[in-house]
Amino acid sequence: MSMLSTEAFILFAIILVVIAFLYASVGHGGASGYLALMALFSFPIAFMKPTALLLNIFVSGISFWFFKKNKHFRWQLFYPFAITSIPAAFLGGYLSINPTLYKQVLGVFLAIAIMRILGLFGKEQNLQKPIKLPLALVIGFGIGLFSGMIGIGGGIILSPVIILLAWGNMKEAAAVSALFIFVNSISGILGFTYNQNTIPMESFVFIPIALIGGTLGALYGSRISTNVQLKYILSIVLLIASIKLMTL
């Protein structure tokens, strides 16, 4: 790959597998991690957004399949968010964003991802509450819009929201987030290409690499649990990228 030397490509691929594994294990596509990784390797911004969305589609798709297979998915918890998030993600993908602002917004979202991974959004509540449709519609629109703009699926934000509002348990939040990311990433990339943008051919090279980690992570997360030690490693990667983005 022209942007990376052979040694850098191998290192990038190894980290990519780890990121896909970790995110898929909690029902996420991994876009915030991919963006952080590409930022660390100084990828062009024009390459980052479509690549993250593309990898998101495949990894979140396989993650959803495993969580649904293990009966963690609830349609009633998914569709209120999806109704507004899908068109909002298309709009966000269509919109162009200033490169400096892009980096700053992405840095904030990566900080959110770090807090989510470290469990700083609170623990799962035993007593679940019924979902409130108007609030879910507003949340779905907001997450969809910003996710489409910066190139993520939004699950990293949706999961803690579901847990904090006690609308579902951890496994249900993971299953819903996986499908949420899948549909929003498709909508976002359609909006991106509709605005006469193109997906770099080099992006497709990373799909099978991400799928290796995503498949293993989804299998592991849907049946067992997540790996605490690797979560902290990922948090360090995200922290470094977040600081780099916000200080450039």
Short description:
Helices cover 74% and strands 0% of the residues. With 248 residues, the protein is mainly α.
Mind sketching the topology for me?
Elements: H1 6-24, H2 31-40, H3 45-69, H4 75-94, H5 99-117, H6 133-150, H7 155-164, H8 170-194, H9 207-223, H10 228-247
Helix pairs in contact: 1-9, 2-3, 2-5, 2-10, 3-8, 3-9, 4-6, 4-8, 5-10, 6-8, 7-8
Kindly list the characteristics that best describe this protein.
mainly alpha, 0% strand, 74% helix
What can you tell me about this protein's structure?
By secondary structure, this protein is mainly α. It has one domain (8-247). The model has no long low-confidence stretch (mean pLDDT 83). The two termini are 25 Å apart. The chain has ten helices and no strands. It has helices at 6-24, 31-40, 45-69, 75-94, 99-117, 133-150, 155-164, 170-194, 207-223, 228-247. Helices cover 74% and strands 0% of the residues.
Low-confidence stretches: none
Largest sheet: none
Rg calculated over all Cα atoms: 16 Å
Question: Residue-averaged pLDDT, rounded?
Answer: 83
State the end-to-end CA separation: 25 Å
Share of β-strand residues: under 5%
SSE run = HHHHHHHHHH
| Count of distinct strands | 0
What shape does the CA trace take? Answer: globular
> How many structurally independent domains?
1
Helix content percent band: over 70%
Structural class: mainly alpha
Count of discrete alpha- or pi-helical segments spanning 4 or more residues: 10
